[in-house]
Design a protein that fits this description.
The protein has four helices and 41 strands. By secondary structure, the chain is mostly beta strands.
Amino acid sequence: MRKVYLTIGISLLSLSFYGQDSYKYDGDITLENDTVKIKKYSLQEVVLTSKNIENPVSIGKSSIKPMDLPQATAVITNETLEKQQVNSITDILKNANGVYIMGTTGGYQEEIASRGFSLSSSNTFKNGIRYFNGMSIETSGLERVEFLKGSAAMLFGNVSPGGILNLVTKKPKYNFGGEVGFNFGSFNTIKPTIDVYNSIGKNKNAAFRINASYEKADSFRNYVESERFYINPSFEVQLSDNTKLLVETDFTKDSRTPDFGAGIIDYEIVEIPRNRFLGVTWGKYDSQQFSNTITLTHYLNNNWNINFVNGIRYYDTELFSNMRPNSGSNGTVQANGDWNRSIQRVKAKDNYFTQQLDLKGVFSTGKVEHNILVGADVENFKTNTTSFNSMSNYDTINIFEDYNPTIEAAIPVLTENTLTEAPISRFGVYAQDLIKFTEKIKVLAGIRYSYQDTRSDVLKYSDGNSTQTKNNDEAFSPRVGLIYQPSKNHSIFATYSNSFDINIGQDDAGNALKPSIVDQYEVGIKNKLFTDKLYLNVTAYQISNDKFYQQSLANGNSYSYIKVLTGEVRSQGVEIDIQANPVKGLTMLAGYSFNETKFLDEGYYVAGSLLRYNPKNTANASANYTFEGGKFKGFNIGLISTYFGERYAGRSTRTQVNNDNRQLIYLEDFIQLDATLGYTYKQFRISTKLSNVFNELNYNVHDDNSVNPIAPRNYSVALNYKF
């Protein structure tokens, strides 16, 4: 707790606010009754003001301002991403209270969690459509990052509790400009970037933007390397004074060495050098993802508009590497450090298609004002996963000895084992209304109807037999929130929502899994203080999931789609968010989160035991100061501190298994501090960053078989020129 108090103290001293984006428009824009009407415009240089926090988050679909929304939100702006030299989701989450990385399995993904629950690809969005987060995510093309905490099922249907994350890419501008950059740093990292935008045509009623980057790096881990290419072209055309079309394309190709980290012996992390690699040097995790979003917006008048989104996404991954330590029948690391390694191979492909149609407007019935959203969406997934027969007894190494890749055996040829086809079709309609009875009393009420068709066909190549499951589910997902605003600077709210969460897979008997029913309660207060220089929000919540499934471990099962019902799970917590710009040039952010997520039923696991990977306490504090005059004009300095509390990995004890020797693995808490220093002169900017200043050592652990140490102290430098 000493570290918790220390970080809270830092938080209170460095009340932080990084969200200061505003836009200068060259055209006709009016704001009437909370609805924006846009005529021909051009986006000029971004200038940041504290008013950004009052803007609605785009992932919320409606034009409801944060003070009127009975739900916690957060926005990480482009200025924050730029000044902190953000290069990963981990970097981004250092500014997001209560949202954290719960694991980095294999070193090729960042597993996100919030309020005790995993935020899978169903909860991750890019420009408003679902985005695959099982691979490394490029951040250079991001304009901002939005978090909508708590329930989002009414808007998007099948999403896990805890919240959703939306990555918003940079948009076209109607004036010529751009930026070129070159980043370099520790571990032989190099990363050139380019960003170009301009208007098109004599009338300048169209514009484009292209972002691209290339990154190649080694690692603090021996023999680990990565390479990534990214491009994000976008195009916008003003079809008329009231209609615009936005087309955005996003492509990432990434290749890196799988690295399952250090070793665990008898459920204890063993001390070996942080840079020691225990995998195979020829291993690979290749991934690529393509998405395209077409958004058509038409303003019927000053009060009503229609928004149509057509989106597609495709991803393709291949993992070919050693299996994780302590997995499989022969893969246990022995007390003397000997490890008999096995080899695995898995391929996965997914095609995703969605269409969304929303009608938004404001009107009055007598003295009562309404801000309404009515919409419908369809989604189709087609996922194919090919698993290969693993190879046991590939070789034996000792984790206490330096790895020698010259003694590696030849790359084996693995044969196909199973092909799993899992098509999913979803349809939903929803309606929501923010009802303003008086200046002080408002109600947000909404409901969604969802229908989902889930299929699974598992083909075994050995005998040609297939196992098929089919499940149709439908449900209503209501949400109601009460808002009381004693003044324009204070908002007190309480919200209840109910949703269902589709569980994909089958039980031990081959039956389709039943959907989970999730109840969420949230209360809080939002405050704007000292003439909008300080924003202080406090939120408390409870989330109950009546049917929580996890991978079955019975009969030596190793397939993730075979699951077991573990009973009801409940998450309870409190979050404190502070954002401020107390003096000119100083922007600050801080937060603290407490969460406890545990099993309630004495069934598969011991009642009262905690879900793994989730810290009870997390905190963050960041500050950046820009010198706007004097001999230090153009300089900016910043500090980024995060606290990650105690948590557990390993294996939860099962109640129905006699002499079960599975154990939890205790992970200590830690504080990590990063420092930044930058200088801007005319169009030139140099930015430097020192990460993990005090060289803290800690781990991201999945089960007892992927133990990834955090990076040691390292530096990065970015050179940029704007034109």
